[in-house]
Design goal:
The structure holds two protein chains of two kinds. By secondary structure, chain A is mainly β. Chain A contains three helices and 19 strands. A 14-stranded antiparallel beta barrel of chain A has the order 2-3-4-5-6-7-8-11-12-15-16-17-18-19. The relative contact order of chain A is 0.18. By secondary structure, chain B is mainly β. In chain B, 11% of the residues lie in helices and 42% in strands. Chain B is built from four helices and 22 strands. At the A-B interface, helix 1, strand 2, strand 3, strand 4 and strand 5 of A face helix 1, strand 1, strand 16 and strand 22 of B.
Chain lengths: 414, 396
């Protein structure tokens, strides 16, 4: 209980902290960069992990994974992201650190695989800033336009897992999506006599969705495959209902705020599908192959599609070394190691060219006693190209997370 | 253990935040933000079609609050002065006055010049007349003058300073000043409504004198020399209690192509631009008004403020001003130019456009006559020029 209290305090301290912008202006399209995970553990496995049944962490991709939950658990993550954005002429380094999310899970019935989990995790992220200078001409004085985008979508979810016949696990969540997408442009004139003005388009979205997940039983055992200690397939379907969005366009100069338009519109976010297969050798060496698909070409806001969006597809190949627990192991021997590669056809397309991303990532979980870990992950990604006047991003992500587990609701025999 | 780990974790987080540094924003990728662009546009009444009208009119005010008294004749102006004095006399003298033991042997007024309008070497003379009725410097105007009861049959002044000097004085008929002293002792036996100073017909300039002021420095001062036969001679001082200039005249004829503003008379001008040419839902970033001066027709005095004030009219019919919006145009060569952005922003934010009122900045000081090119000036570039730089977001 004390550990959970400390966790809550840590979360309260950092929950509202966000610094600077770290992404490119590509995040202006649609709802920005899609976020798939929130914790160091998830970054270490490529942010998907459709088939993972991990009793020591709370994964949010597949609610069926909570059937393995054995302890009351709270987990959260904080991440640093630094990005070197380049075009043919110049580069610019930006970075930010932010609280990524928190989850809390309770195992209700191990016999039936019932685990209840709730949490707050990111769904998309908009984060850019740019500035352009317009020199004086015969008519118009010199000025700068400062562009800034921030915000995104988050979701609060509550869900549960349960066993199905044949050893399958299933899970379902109720998701509430919310968030602001704030796009602003500020005009600043060189001549101080001119009044600067900030134009701001704020979209406030809310709506519900659900996630359904399925993880198979150990197929290696079912089919009697020798040499493979664990073989599973998994599948998730994440549906997002149309989000009610208030769109407010204001112009602010001096202290005068003028609301130019105030409209309501529907934001349609296509469903996200993941699939995966995993196998383990000698119960220690785990291999995961994951696939994610989200047809963002069907995204629309106020029934208007975004011409810079296409379908997002991601492939992961991950390895995790999870030593079998044995008596007398040193702490170092208990460390869980992860490594993976991914290729992502992002949802962006600019100047007729798709924006793709390659990533390599790795991480570890350092044990803090039996049920707790401190998690660390690093991801390097290479996104886009400078060809065709496009932007290239070299990004490094460093994530820290804590996962505290504790046995609650013990029943003692008298 | 948990405590130690928490400390390590907090330290790591702190390092994360500390290293979250950024280069200054660049223009990387701004070409992909066209939907968030801002248009900056300009309207210029000398280039674009913005309908405008302007005209001058006389707007008479009481000039009692002015720090200056104007006396003389020049150009279109005849300016008179009303003065009234009060006394602060010791009781011993007051007793003698009551007993009528004192004789006024001389009385004179001194005024300090601070301004001249017209040819400084031109003739200047004036007369002093007894006023027979009460008047107030806070309400008396040029329009009241025709109804003023004063004795214009006898000039009560003599030994007047008429040549150029710093201090101007004139002596007053002692019968008049004696009556004022009697009025001081007993208001029932005599009156004291002051005097009217009027320029003589041959006067061809207007001089300005320091008026009543709170420091009593250089204000008009009456000195009355009294004698108690066989005993003493003393000088009593009359302090100005009310004073006002009464500036008479028509606004100068400047033709239909010009407008004119003149201090003290007072001539003002209205200028109305058709603001509907400015699109809705834009932000006015800067608006400047430029008025072209007819330098030959304009007349100024020995010292003046070379500036013009622009007001937002609340009600054009009653000339009611919105005093939240007052701006000054400074002289630059043959123009007055200034920033009137907030007036345009007010119109842009649904304040009714009743036009602009243009005045001399020191409207109650001097007789400066600024002749400005109006909306009917044959050369478009000489007409009142309104330049508006405005911006609008692409969402508009």
């Amino acid at each position: 209980m004390k550990k959970l209290s400390i966790s809550v305090i840590l979360i309260a301290v950092f929950a509202s902290i966000t610094i600077a912008q770290s992404n490119s202006v590509y995040t202006r399209a649609g709802i920005g960069d899609l976020e798939f995970g929130y914790s160091a553990k998830m970054v270490g496995i490529g942010n998907i992990g459709t088939t993972q049944l991990d009793p020591d962490h709370l994964l949010v991709t597949n609610p069926a994974s909570w059937s393995a939950l054995s302890r009351t658990r709270i987990e959260f993550g904080i991440g640093y992201r630094g990005t070197l954005i380049s075009d043919n002429q110049q580069s610019n380094y930006t970075s930010e650190t932010e609280f990524k999310g928190v989850t809390f899970g309770i195992p209700i019935s191990r016999e039936y695989g019932v685990g209840a989990v709730m949490g707050l995790v990111p769904y998309s992220r908009i984060s850019y800033s740019a500035e352009k200078y317009y020199p004086k001409d015969d008519i118009i004085p010199a000025y700068k336009l400062f562009y800034e985008g921030k915000g995104g979508l988050s979701k609060i979810f509550i869900g549960s897992s349960f066993f199905l016949p044949l050893g399958f696990s299933a899970g379902v969540t109720l998701d509430y999506y919310f968030g602001n997408q704030d796009y602003s442009t500020t005009i600043n004139f060189d001549d101080p006599r001119y009044i600067s003005t900030k134009y701001e388009d704020i979209r406030r979205s809310t709506g519900f969705g659900t996630t359904l997940g399925l993880i198979s039983s150990n197929l290696a055992r079912e089919f009697g495959i020798n040499g493979i200690s664990d073989l599973r397939v998994g599948f998730t379907y994440n549906f997002v209902g149309n989000l009610d969005t208030d769109s407010i366009f204001t112009q602010t100069s001096l202290s005068l705020v003028d609301t130019v338009t105030n409209t309501k519109a529907d934001m349609k976010i296509p469903a996200r599908i993941t699939g995966g297969i995993s196998f383990a050798l000698e119960e220690e060496y785990n291999f995961y192959l994951d696939f994610l698909f989200q047809p963002m070409s069907q995204y629309s806001f106020n029934n208007q599609p975004d011409g810079n969006l296409k379908d997002a597809i991601k492939y992961n190949a991950n390895f995790e070394y999870k030593p079998k627990r044995q008596a007398g192991m040193t702490t170092l021997e208990q460390i869980i190691w992860r490594f993976g590669l991914s290729y992502e056809q992002t949802q962006y397309t600019f100047n007729g060219q798709d924006i793709n991303q390659y990533s390599a990532y790795g991480g570890l979980s350092y044990p803090l006693g039996i049920d707790n870990t401190i998690d660390f992950a690093v991801e390097y990604s290479n996104k886009g190209t400078t060809d065709n006047n496009l932007l290239h991003e070299n990004a490094i992500k460093i994530y820290l997370g804590l996962s505290f587990g504790e046995l609650w609701f013990l029943r003692y025999d008298k | 253990m948990i405590k130690n780990i928490s400390l390590v974790f907090l330290s790591a987080i702190s390092i994360f935040f500390i290293v979250s540094c950024n280069d200054s924003p660049t223009d990387l990728g701004t070409k992909f933000l066209s939907q968030d662009g801002v248009e900056v546009l300009k309207l210029d009444s000398s280039i674009d079609t913005i309908n405008q009208t302007s005209y001058s009119f006389k707007n008479v005010f009481p000039l009692g609050a002015s720090s200056q008294l104007l006396l003389g004749k020049a150009e279109n102006i005849t300016s008179n002065v009303l003065l009234k004095f009060v006394f602060a006399i010791p009781d011993s003298i007051k007793e003698q006055l009551a007993l009528r033991n004192l004789t006024v042997i001389d009385s004179y007024v001194e005024m300090f010049r601070n301004y001249s309008f017209g040819d400084s070497n031109a003739a200047f003379d004036y007369a002093a007349y007894k006023v027979n009725e009460q008047w107030s410097s806070s309400s008396f105007t040029a329009d009241s003058f025709a109804f003023l009861d004063y004795d214009n049959s006898m000039d009560l002044s003599f030994n007047r300073t008429t040549a150029n000097d710093t201090v101007y004085s004139f002596h007053l008929d002692t019968t008049l000043t004696s009556s004022w002293l009697q009025n001081y002792v007993d208001t029932s036996v005599a009156s004291n409504y002051g005097i009217l100073l009027s320029p003589t017909d041959n006067t061809q300039k207007v001089l300005g004198f320091t008026a009543f002021n709170t420091t009593a420095e250089n204000d008009p001062r009456l000195r009355i020399v009294v004698q108690k036969p066989g005993a003493y001679i003393d000088t009593l001082i009359g302090f100005v209690s009310s004073d006002i200039s009464v500036v008479l005249g028509d606004i100068p004829n400047v033709g239909t192509e010009n407008i004119v503003v003149q201090s003290s008379l007072t001539s003002e001008a209205k200028l109305i631009f058709d603001f509907s040419v400015v699109p809705e839902d834009v932000v006015i970033n800067l608006a400047t008004l430029t008025l072209t001066v007819d330098t030959l027709a304009s007349k100024t005095g020995s010292s003046f403020s070379n500036r013009i004030s622009v007001y937002l009219l609340d009600d054009s019919a009653s000339n009611k001003l919105n005093t939240d919006f007052v701006y000054t145009l400074d002289r630059r060569g043959a123009t007055f130019t200034g920033d009137i952005t907030n007036i345009l922003r007010a119109w842009n934010n649904r304040v009714d456009n009743q036009g602009l009122l243009i005045k001399s900045t020191l409207e109650f000081w001097g007789l400066e006559t600024f002749v400005l090119k109006g909306s009917n000036a044959p050369l478009i570039e000489q007409r009142p020029r309104l330049e508006i730089v405005y911006s609008r977001g692409k969402n508009n």
